[in-house]
């Protein structure tokens, strides 16, 4: 069965610092990859997605992610974080014939002023 | 608000009681999903509907759990004889159903506490 690993459980950054959150998946076939964000008190929202084509995907609010097939990775990046980016971030994958998303355990990002 | 809605938002119940949650998907979304999220974990898939047909069920969905989507619109998730281990956030999501994989839109969830 496919799985998703997020190695950073809790990240604390100062405003304007650069961000990179790791995501690795374990599936050798065609994958579709997502990053979702959950702001405090709000529901899960899609940040960005990769289905095919350019492996560098740009999402909302200045976030981007790069799909590296050889490394089974889909890391999330942002050059300069803001206090409002404080949230929990989830990597997820569709794979194979399943119509379900498999999520990682999430990374809690705390941005300090 | 035209997003996915869930009711109730919070439910506290005693062990052994039955509970039912409702999910209203985005209008005209054919696919509807239920997930469960416990503290410190990502959402885990429970079940999935294409219109009114329940096409996939997770092993997490024991025989105490049942989900329906009778007219292909709203869905209900019932848990019978609740146990403390059922305490979690129950999330509903819907997607348009165009193509094999399409974006899922999540609702706010129903937080269940079993005492």
Q: Could you characterize the architecture of this molecule?
A:
The complex is a heterodimer of chains A (113) and B (115). Helices cover 0% and strands 50% of the residues of chain A. In chain A, strands 2, 5, 6, 10, 11 and 12 form a six-stranded mixed beta sheet that branches. Chain A is built from no helices and twelve strands. Chain B is mainly beta and 115 residues long. Chain B is built from no helices and eleven strands. Helices cover 0% and strands 49% of the residues of chain B. The chains are: A mainly beta (113), B mainly beta (115).
Features:
heterodimer; A: 113 residues; mainly beta; six-stranded mixed sheet; globular; B: 115 residues; four-stranded antiparallel sheet; 11 strands
Helix-strand blueprint:
The complex is a heterodimer of chains A (113) and B (115).
Chain A: E1 4-5, E2 10-14, E3 19-21, E4 24-25, E5 31-38, E6 45-50, E7 56-58, E8 64-68, E9 73-78, E10 87-95, E11 102-103, E12 107-112
Chain B: E1 5-7, E2 10-13, E3 19-24, E4 31-37, E5 44-50, E6 53-57, E7 65-68, E8 75-79, E9 88-95, E10 105-106, E11 110-114
Parallel strand pairs in B: 2-11
Antiparallel strand pairs in B: 1-3, 3-8, 4-5, 4-9, 5-6, 7-8, 9-10, 9-11
């Amino acid at each position: 069965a496919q799985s998703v690993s997020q190695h950073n459980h809790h990240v604390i950054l100062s405003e304007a610092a650069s961000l990179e959150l790791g995501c690795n998946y374990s599936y050798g076939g065609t994958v579709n990859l997502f990053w979702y964000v959950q702001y405090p008190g709000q529901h899960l929202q899609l940040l960005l997605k990769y289905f095919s084509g350019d492996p560098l995907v740009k999402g909302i609010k200045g976030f981007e992610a790069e799909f590296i097939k050889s490394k089974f990775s889909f890391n999330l990046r942002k050059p300069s974080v803001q206090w409002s980016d404080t949230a929990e971030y989830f990597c997820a994958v569709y794979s194979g014939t399943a119509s379900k998303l498999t999520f990682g355990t999430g990374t809690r990002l705390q941005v300090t002023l | 608000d035209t997003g996915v809605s869930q009711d109730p938002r919070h439910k506290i119940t005693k062990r052994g009681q039955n509970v039912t949650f409702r999910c209203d998907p985005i209008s005209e979304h054919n696919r509807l999903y239920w997930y469960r999220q416990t503290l410190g974990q990502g959402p885990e898939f429970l079940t999935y509907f294409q219109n009114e047909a329940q096409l996939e069920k997770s092993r997490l969905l024991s025989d105490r759990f049942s989900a329906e989507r009778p007219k292909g619109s709203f869905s209900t998730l019932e848990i019978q004889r609740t146990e403390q281990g059922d305490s979690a956030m129950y999330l509903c999501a819907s997607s348009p159903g165009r193509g094999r994989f399409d974006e899922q839109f999540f609702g706010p969830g129903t937080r269940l506490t079993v005492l």
